[in-house]
Structures are given as structure tokens and as C-alpha cells.
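Exercise 7b. C-alpha cells:
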């Protein structure tokens, strides 16, 4: 899943995705959410057991945003992360020009 957002709302979108990923799993599960600042934007990820990457959202300074799901995610329900990303994208995405 991918899309484009205004460069003016990159931080808000990143916060939205981070909060959505964070609330996608019960506190009783061993799933962590991490956010990184990268040279070209931000990355928000969820890990199982602290090491196994499940989901990754890239939020680029250009406004391009993309969600990636690792093959390891087949073992764990990641629908919450997908829904969170989609919800944030609907909230912040650029209007499509006709």
C-alpha cells in the first residue's frame, strides 16, 4: 500500500502511523514499535520478539509513503498495522487531481 501526502504533514502522518502501530497489539504480546529518522524521511516498524521485523512504513521527505510487510508477518496478525496505515493515509493523503 502506498500513496502521497503533503510535505507539510509528514510529522503528523508519522505520528499517526506510530500511534496506530503501537496500539495494534496488546501489551501482553512481545511486539515492539520503533521509529527511526532516516536521511530521506522516517521509518516506523513493528518487531516481534525485538528482532523479527513484521511491518515497516516508509515516510519520505518527498511525501511518498509506503507500507511493507515482511514474510515473517505471516505468523502474526498484522491487520491492525494495515488498518492504521490506511486510516492515516485517508486522513492525510493529497487530493487526486483530475
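Sequence design result:
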Amino acid at each position: 500500500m502506498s500513496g502521497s501526502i503533503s510535505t507539510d504533514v509528514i510529522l503528523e502522518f508519522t505520528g499517526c502511523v506510530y500511534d496506530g502501530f503501537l496500539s495494534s497489539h496488546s501489551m501482553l504480546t512481545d511486539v515492539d514499535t520503533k521509529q527511526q529518522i532516516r536521511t530521506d524521511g522516517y521509518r516506523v516498524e513493528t518487531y516481534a520478539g525485538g528482532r523479527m521485523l513484521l511491518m515497516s512504513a516508509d515516510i519520505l521527505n518527498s511525501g511518498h509513503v509506503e507500507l511493507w510487510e515482511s514474510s515473517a508477518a505471516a505468523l502474526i496478525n498484522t491487520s491492525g498495522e494495515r488498518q492504521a496505515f490506511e486510516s492515516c493515509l485517508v486522513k492525510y493523503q493529497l487530493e487526486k487531481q483530475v
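Instructor comment: The chain is about 30% helix and 35% strand. Strands lie at 2-4, 31-38, 41-48, 52-60, 64-69.
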